[in-house]
């Protein structure tokens, strides 16, 4: 039996068994739009932990972060800490978010600022940027990894994983995705541990690994910044605020059955994500000690060619499972934004439930086809993640958090919110064209914060003067 056939069979077994179990859990209930969008707000805490973790990890950990560990050692941990911080920040908003039963970020805006078509449209477009970037990043990761072990063109592999991912989205949206994410997360943690033990044995142990990687990459504390201060700054002002404004996390907060355990779910997901980042750092160093002459994002792909067949078969299944978990989650989120925040709020008044589900499924296909095409055109995993985080954060960070802070004071106006989102993106795009010490994401976020304050102050002053005139 050929290696490709073994990999194919093991992957199909893992995917098939997961899909079958998920089907048994959900088949008795009829799919509603509430199931599709936020899992019927009835998902157990352990499932929420699993889906938060699996969605956040995915191919970014398997390819980009292992590659970063290969290239820059402890800087992987720096990036990992930054992407975990949003989970901690969201614990402060979590109960408020769940209590108010929000489905999307534009729902939050409507609750705080009132109904406004301009805000609804722009916030929906900004919200779907990050999950769309996640889809493209996962497809690129899969193409690079599987091309190394199958010899197939990465473009063809991206098309294949696009079709498989749709299978896990179509039945019930988030309700299906969350349960499959949970099983994939359990599988990922077990297989990562086994692969680490096998790779360490190949490399002669961790102590031997440290003697064969550049000292500056693993030295304390310098190793945490070996990738360069500018890059760390870019991560901080893109991945951190981008994570805080990532609707995938918000949806799962809204989907938990017990509101009192929403903070526990976020902390549990953060712990699991940190464990996967430690794994990525270790694997990057192990692979570099074995072969120091690789392109960084091909590190995991090379390791796959060195593993025993049985371990390769398991790891190949892990790759597909983790990538599908993130891809399907991101696809469902993008479609939710289009249907809930654009179609329902701006185009129709009272849609039929059945038609809404059909539309969601059709849009899922369209989103995945577009993402696949863009992944083939621009196959850079980490850049997709960082850039989409940056643009989303530039437009959404100020309205979300200032809106929450001033939610009972009426200080921030609708015009200020809309202006801040537009200015944030425009400034981000403009400064991206220039090489500066300060990352473009910082300028975008700064422009958004300044705009929302200035416009609110000006409109507030005008309102006060108008009221004074009325009194006179």
Explain what this protein looks like in three dimensions:
By secondary structure, the protein is mostly helical. It has a single domain (3-383), classed as Up-down Bundle (Sodium/glucose cotransporter). The protein is built from 22 helices and no strands. The longest helix has 38 residues, at 309-346. It is globular and about 70 Å long.
Task: Using brief descriptors, characterize the structure shown.
Sodium/glucose cotransporter; 472 residues; 80% helix; 22 helices; mainly alpha; 0% strand
Question: Topology, please?
Answer:
Layout: H1 3-26, H2 33-38, H3 45-72, H4 75-90, H5 94-99, H6 105-113, H7 117-127, H8 129-150, H9 154-169, H10 174-203, H11 206-211, H12 215-218, H13 229-236, H14 239-244, H15 247-255, H16 262-290, H17 299-306, H18 309-346, H19 353-377, H20 381-405, H21 414-432, H22 440-471
Helix pairs in contact: 1-10, 1-18, 3-4, 3-8, 3-10, 3-15, 3-16, 3-18, 4-16, 6-7, 6-20, 7-18, 7-21, 8-9, 8-17, 8-18, 8-19, 8-20, 9-18, 9-19, 10-16, 10-18, 16-17, 18-19, 20-21, 20-22, 21-22
């Amino acid at each position: 039996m050929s290696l490709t056939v073994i990999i194919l069979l093991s992957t199909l077994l893992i995917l098939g068994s997961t899909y079958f179990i998920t089907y048994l859990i959900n088949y008795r209930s009829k799919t509603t739009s509430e199931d599709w969008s936020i899992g019927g707000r009835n998902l157990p805490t352990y499932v929420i932990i699993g889906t938060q973790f699996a969605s956040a990890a995915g191919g970014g950990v398997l390819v980009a972060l292992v590659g970063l560990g290969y290239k820059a050692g402890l800087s992987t941990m720096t990036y990992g800490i930054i992407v975990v911080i949003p989970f901690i920040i969201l614990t402060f908003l979590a109960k408020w978010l769940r209590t108010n039963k929000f489905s999307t970020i534009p729902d939050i805006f409507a609750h705080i600022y009132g109904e406004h078509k301009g805000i609804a449209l722009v916030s929906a477009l900004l919200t779907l940027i990050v999950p769309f970037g996640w889809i493209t990043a996962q497809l690129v990761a899969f193409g690079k990894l599987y091309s190394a072990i199958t010899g197939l063109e990465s473009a063809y592999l991206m098309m294949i994983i696009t079709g498989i991912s749709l299978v896990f989205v179509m039945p019930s949206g988030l309700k299906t995705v969350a349960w499959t994410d949970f099983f994939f997360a359990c599988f990922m943690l077990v297989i990562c541990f086994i692969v680490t033990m096998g790779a360490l044995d190949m490399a002669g142990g961790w102590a031997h690994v440290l003697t064969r990687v550049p000292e500056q990459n693993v030295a304390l504390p310098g190793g945490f910044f070996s990738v360069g201060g500018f890059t760390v700054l870019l991560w901080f002002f893109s991945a951190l605020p981008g994570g805080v404004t990532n609707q995938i996390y918000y949806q799962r907060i809204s989907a938990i059955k017990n509101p009192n355990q929403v903070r526990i779910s976020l902390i549990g997901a953060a712990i699991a994500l940190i464990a996967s980042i430690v794994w990525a750092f270790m694997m990057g160093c192990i692979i570099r000690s074995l072969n120091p002459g690789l392109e960084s994002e091909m590190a995991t792909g090379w390791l796959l060619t060195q593993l025993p067949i049985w371990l390769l078969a398991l790891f190949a299944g892990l790759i597909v499972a983790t990538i599908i978990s993130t891809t399907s989650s991101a696809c469902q989120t993008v479609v939710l934004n289009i249907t809930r925040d654009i179609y329902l709020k701006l185009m129709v008044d009272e849609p039929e439930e059945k038609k809404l589900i059909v539309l969601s499924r059709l849009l899922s296909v369209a989103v995945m086809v577009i993402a696949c095409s863009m992944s083939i055109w621009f196959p850079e995993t980490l850049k997709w993640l960082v850039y989409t985080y940056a643009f989303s954060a530039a437009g959404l960070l100020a309205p979300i958090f200032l809106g929450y802070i001033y939610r009972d004071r009426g200080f921030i106006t609708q015009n200020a919110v809309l202006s801040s989102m537009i200015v944030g993106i425009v400034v981000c795009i403009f400064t991206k064209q220039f090489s500066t010490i300060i990352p473009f994401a910082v300028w975008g976020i700064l422009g958004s914060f300044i705009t929302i304050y200035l416009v609110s102050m000006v409109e507030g002053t005008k309102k006060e003067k108008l009221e004074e005139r009325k009194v006179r």
